[in-house]
Amino acid sequence: MGKVPHTMRKLLLLIALLVAGVSAAAAGEPTQALLNELVQPHLAGAGKVSEGLPQVQAGALQGEGSALFTLEELKDGTQALADLALPDDEPAADVPLALNDKVNYFITFFQTKGRGTYARWLSRSTRYLPMMKEILRKEGLPQELVYVAMIESGFQLHARSWANAVGPWQFMSATGRRYSLRIDQWVDERKDPVKATMAAAMYLKDLYGMFNNDWYLAAAGYNAGENKIFRAIDKYDTSDFWELSKGSYLKRETKEYVPKLLAAAIIAKDPARYGFTEIASVPVVEYDTVTVKGRTDLELVARLAGTTYQSIKELNPALRHWCTPPNYPDYELKIPKGTKARFEQGLAAIPAEQHFSEKNLYSRYTATRKDSLKQLARRFGSTAGELAELNGLGVKDRIAGRTLIIPVKQSVNFAQEGRRETAKAEAAAAQYYTVRKGDTLHSLSRRFKVSVKVLAAWNNLKHAVALKPGKRLVVAKTEKSVSTKG
């Protein structure tokens, strides 16, 4: 029998896939059901921080590609099945890019119903691929593993899954900390593309060793957790991923994770072959780094670097608030390329105490058994939601024994209030005072050597308010401690 032409081979393969899908549907179980979250996780706070990239609305991500389909349904009315590209042979790669019905299914999907999403992934990837591939190369890992980030998040730094996996590599908090990512109320390094990629490289290398140098099992372990894959191997007495995926123990998400990853990598190696010929390229991130003190105001950083607050936030996606972390003595900050000399010269000309904005003054408080966030919020003039966010807690979490960061000054402008008085108050040991009969804000301001306006702001009071005996007031504070003695 003569050699079958290339186009005919593709058509026969697609017909075979269609027949297989129809047969399985008749049996009540589709051959390759799509993931419930085939495209991407939803974006927490979508629209708040732009990466300067093509954006996908969170609502669209939830529904796009979530329905089951047959290959026949993939046709858009103008494109024949025979026109869709499929690989002739396994592409050359360090990770074996297997070709089978499951992989071809996703190759077909990305050219049809998932085309728009995959095009956005490719466009966004151009910003991060050089950096990510270089890190993988230095770690001795295959370049194809960069497409784990494509499948996990579509290269979106602020992506968050339903399970609270975060960042371009979708680390759970426990796994992120295991690989030296700092995650607290001030920073979340899962969103830092460089640090998260380094952590992902270490994790993937460990998984590869755990599963006897099998990248398919390593990828499945990245998705489901290594223990889940080990249990599947024990249950079915095989370490062949494709055999494991035939059983019912692994979730559908994990069964489809590897073929989807392989399909994404195959297309990315030769986008034009698969019809992706006009992909908008996004400039690679370039920046200078500077070291600043903890709780440095990002508005000040932006002004000295000649840029915007939003730009500083985009360059430093790990920062969760408006300043560098107060619990870090020094913090390495990214600023626009070419602005380092200007920034350092400007910063040196400003007194150190002016580096910190009024919003950045906090105290620490160790909660007792009787405390709750709601009670502390009333006591310190805050809200339970704000305290929960600042301390990485849920509003209803138990806090006994925890040392919490408490905002005790929220709206005082240093320039207007006199920096000398404020500096004295900051240097003092944090104190609370129980109001006695005859006390006024003026008498207490003289007694504790702090202005009436600062004292009122610390305690969320109006200047002319009459003080009720028994009320506890903040009369001095520092970032190191809070005394509960009156």
Automatic annotation (TrEMBL):
Keywords: Signal. GO terms for molecular function: lytic endotransglycosylase activity. Gene3D superfamilies: 1.10.530.10, LysM domain. Residues 1-26 form the signal peptide. InterPro entries: LysM, LysM_dom_sf, Lysozyme-like_dom_sf, Transglycosylase_SLT_dom_1. Residues 363-406, 431-475 form the LysM domain. It comes from the Bacteria. The keyword Signal applies. The keyword Cell membrane does not apply. PANTHER family: LYSM DOMAIN-CONTAINING GPI-ANCHORED PROTEIN 2, MEMBRANE-BOUND LYTIC MUREIN TRANSGLYCOSYLASE D. This is Membrane-bound lytic murein transglycosylase D.
